[in-house]
């Protein structure tokens, strides 16, 4: 593990171990939610699509009933973070077969969130 990121050197993948982030006495407000969210370490933003769902309400406002269900569903999904496995190396083995590499970046935003995606395209000789 380096800087909270777990690297499985045998499979050359990055994984996200799940830590317990819930407490029975946790406030049902955004402040309480952010307390939980900040326990999920994601400095590179790989988990942003998951975490952004929890960042959309006012700080100290109690959660309305319709959001309480969404919040409970979100908490129930936390264990699935440990199933995420990202390859560390994005190029095929034997880089001598690569003819050309392109990097494509995209971004978008709304009033609620923003996001970006970067794609690596490698053209091989064959």
TrEMBL record:
It comes from the Eukaryota. It holds the Pfam family Peptidase_A17. PANTHER family: PHD-TYPE DOMAIN-CONTAINING PROTEIN. This is Uncharacterized protein. It comes from Trichinella pseudospiralis.
């Amino acid at each position: 593990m380096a800087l909270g990121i777990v690297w499985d050197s045998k499979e050359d993948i990055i994984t996200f171990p799940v830590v317990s982030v819930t407490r029975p006495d946790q406030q049902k407000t955004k402040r309480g939610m952010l307390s939980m969210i900040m326990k999920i370490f994601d400095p590179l933003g790989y988990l942003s699509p998951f975490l952004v769902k929890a960042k959309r309400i006012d700080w100290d406002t109690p959660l309305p009933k319709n959001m309480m269900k969404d919040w409970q569903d979100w908490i129930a999904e936390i264990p699935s973070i440990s199933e995420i496995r990202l390859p560390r190396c994005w190029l095929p083995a034997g880089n001598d077969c690569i003819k050309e590499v392109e990097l494509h970046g995209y971004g978008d935003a709304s009033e609620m969130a923003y996001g970006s995606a970067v794609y690596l395209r490698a053209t091989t000789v064959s």
